[in-house]
Design a protein that fits this description.
392 residues, five-stranded mixed sheet, five-stranded parallel sheet, Heat Shock Protein 90, 3 domains, Rossmann fold, Helix Hairpins, alpha/beta, 47% helix
């Protein structure tokens, strides 16, 4: 690691310059030479060196060991001690600061370079182990949260199914037709919620394994959006009416079919619309706009719901994160994470504007080439194995 930045802490000018020349000749970058413990602490903070060569006996009230300890308390940086003193008391004090090397003066260039390389290699290994342990701990925490969240969210629809089937079984001949239909609808709704949660789990799994892929094909996108709305809310009594608008650039034909991944788009729009309805007052409008240009497809979902506190916006798309004002409302905390992952796999972007108690607006932009002519159905029929692809 011969491009490493090194801070030299040495109060004897001739020795300091000799070390500097040797290190520069070997390809190291010298950030500065400090001649006191106080100066070493200040330079370590401002220059952020990769390694510090620290003389133990320094000018002033603070020696190198005390300076190294203070640096260690403020930042992570390997220290190699330089000293003419080898008494046991000095060594015992030095050990308490966990140094990465110890050179006794006088030393030659070979010993200096070898000690520095060993120190840098050891530090890099320890950092890698530390990062691995942190990731492992985060993974274990996420796994525990996942089990807790999913088991809780599955319990509710399972209870609904159990309760409804028991009533249907016990009072099969006594229930009015409309009452029976209500219980069947509850069972269907519970099964659909479980199906959607399993889909979310599969998306998370594919993303973690690096297997979430974009498989685009021409899609009648306005009809797709209208079908999605119809699937999400009953026509006779919607909880929050979804107002859909569709705009096509003048240069495009009205029936243009952009090239998108149907599955990813279902997860993107399904989660955004579901959240808009879930977190909005009953009867309030949800605005759903679709606009097409020759370069992009853009979706805007705006609600009049509870909004998102400013402190939650930075973690909004993290797995299992739920806004502080939404924790009393059922949910897994996976929806927006899945939206962002699907958008990114599609090469797009997502923006959010929100204020607590004043609703939220999500803007998704997918950079998708749009064919200027509908796909040739005859050609597709003649070659059943060919797949439409996005050019560009």
């Amino acid at each position: 690691m011969q491009d490493a930045k090194i801070l030299i802490v040495e109060d004897e000018s001739i020795i300091a310059l000799d070390i500097k020349m040797s290190l520069q000749h070997a390809g190291y970058a010298i950030v500065e030479i400090a001649r006191s413990g106080e100066e070493a602490i200040a330079l370590a903070q401002s220059q952020q060196p990769d390694l510090i060569l620290m003389d133990i006996q320094l000018q002033g009230p603070m020696d190198g060991i005390e300076a190294a300890q203070k640096i260690r308390e403020q930042q992570s940086c390997p220290v190699v001690y330089l000293t003419a003193h080898t008494d046991s008391q000095t060594l015992d004090r030095a050990k308490l600061t966990a140094p990465f090397g110890y050179l006794t003066k006088p030393f030659d260039d070979h010993s200096l370079m070898t000690t520095i390389e060993i120190a840098l290699a050891r530090y890099a290994s320890e950092q890698a182990i530390r990062e691995t342990l942190v990731k492992q701990r985060e993974f274990n925490e996420l796994r525990s949260r996942f089990v807790a969240v999913v088991s809780h969210e599955f319990r509710n629809p399972l209870n609904t199914i159990l309760f409804s089937t028991e009533l249907l079984h016990r009072y099969e001949t006594k229930l009015e037709p409309n009452r029976r239909e209500l219980y069947f609808q509850r069972i269907h709704g519970a099964v659909k919620r479980m199906h959607d949660m399993l889909d979310d789990v599969l998306i998370i799994g594919e993303t973690d394994a690096g297997k979430l892929a974009c498989q685009p094909e021409p899609l009648a996108i306005a009809q797709f959006c209208q079908d999605l709305i119809a699937e999400m809310q009953p026509e006779d009594a919607p909880i929050c009416p979804i107002v859909f608008t569709y705009e096509v650039a003048p240069s495009l034909p009205p029936d243009v079919q952009p090239v998108v991944d149907r599955k990813l788009l279902f997860h993107i729009l399904g989660n955004l619309l579901s959240n808009a309805v879930k977190y909005s007052p009953i009867g309030s409008l949800v605005i759903f706009d679709l606009s097409l240009t020759p370069e992009t497809v853009q979706f805007r979902v705006q609600d009049q719901g509870i909004g998102i506190p400013e402190k939650d916006l930075a973690k909004l798309f993290h797995d299992f994160h739920r806004a502080s004002n939404a924790r009393s409302i059922p949910g897994t905390g996976l929806g927006l994470s899945i939206v962002k992952q699907c958008v990114e796999v599609h090469g797009g972007s997502i923006l959010v504007e929100s204020q607590e108690n004043y609703g939220s607006t999500f803007l998704v932009t997918l950079p998708i080439p749009i064919p200027t002519q509908p796909p040739d159905a005859a050609a597709v029929q003649a070659e059943p194995n060919c797949k439409p692809i996005a050019l560009g």
